[in-house]
C-alpha cells in the first residue's frame, strides 16, 4: 500500500527532511501547549469577555490532532521521508514502525524499542476522525466528550513518538 503513496508523490524519500525532524517534534509540543491553553479558557471566560455559551472544545480536538500529526511527521522525517498526505503518514507509520519492512539495518537493532503497537497508529486515525466530527458537529456534548478523550490520546501519542524519536535519532 505504501508504494501507491510513493508513486503518487504523497510520500517521498528525501534525506534533506531529516533536518526538519526536530522542528516537527517541537511544533507537536507547541500544539500540546496550545491545546492545554484552549482547554482552560472555560475557567476564564469572564476575564477574557467570552460569552458563557462559547466553548473551545472543537479547537482542543483540532489542535490535539495536529500535535499528533506533527509528531508523526517528525518520525518520518527522522527516517528521511516527507509526507504530503494524512493518510500516507498513517500508512507509512504502520509500515515502518509496526510491520518494519522498510526499516534500515541500523534501526532494526533497536526495533523492539521503536516498535509501535498497531493501536498507537490507529489512534492517529481515530483522532483525525474525531477532529472532523468536532469541526462539523453542532452538538456541544459530543464535542466536549471528544475533547476530553483526545487530550489524553494526544499527550500519550506525542510522548511515545518522542521516546522513539530519541532512539532512532
Q: What brief labels describe this structure?
A:
169 residues; mainly alpha
Description:
With 169 residues, this protein is mainly α. The chain is built from 8 helices and 2 strands, in the order H-E-H-H-E-H-H-H-H-H. It has helices spanning 2-7, 21-39, 57-78, 86-99, 105-108, 111-114, 118-136, 140-168; strands at residues 11-13, 81-83. It has a two-stranded antiparallel sheet with strand order 1-2. The radius of gyration is 17 Å and the shape is elongated. It starts with a helix and ends with a helix. Residues 101-112 have low confidence and may be disordered.
Describe the protein's topology.
Layout: H1 2-7, E1 11-13, H2 21-39, H3 57-78, E2 81-83, H4 86-99, H5 105-108, H6 111-114, H7 118-136, H8 140-168
Antiparallel strand pairs: 1-2
Amino acid at each position: 500500500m505504501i508504494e501507491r503513496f510513493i508513486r503518487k508523490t504523497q510520500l517521498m524519500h528525501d534525506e534533506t527532511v531529516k533536518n526538519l525532524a526536530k522542528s516537527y517534534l517541537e511544533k507537536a509540543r507547541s500544539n500540546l501547549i496550545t491545546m492545554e491553553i484552549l482547554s482552560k479558557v472555560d475557567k476564564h471566560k469572564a476575564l477574557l469577555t467570552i460569552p458563557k455559551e462559547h466553548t473551545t472544545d472543537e479547537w482542543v480536538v483540532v489542535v490535539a490532532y495536529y500535535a499528533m500529526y506533527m509528531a508523526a511527521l517528525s518520525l518520518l522525517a527522522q527516517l528521511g521521508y516527507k509526507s504530503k498526505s494524512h493518510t500516507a503518514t498513517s500508512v507509512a507509520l504502520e509500515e515502518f514502525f509496526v510491520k518494519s519492512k522498510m526499516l534500515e539495518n541500523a534501526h532494526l537493532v533497536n526495533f523492539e524499542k521503536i516498535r509501535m503497537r498497531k493501536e498507537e497508529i490507529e489512534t492517529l486515525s481515530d483522532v483525525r476522525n474525531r477532529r472532523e466530527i468536532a469541526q462539523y458537529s453542532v452538538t456541544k456534548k459530543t464535542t466536549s466528550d471528544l475533547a476530553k478523550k483526545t487530550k489524553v490520546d494526544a499527550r500519550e501519542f506525542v510522548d511515545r513518538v518522542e521516546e522513539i524519536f530519541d532512539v532512532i535519532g
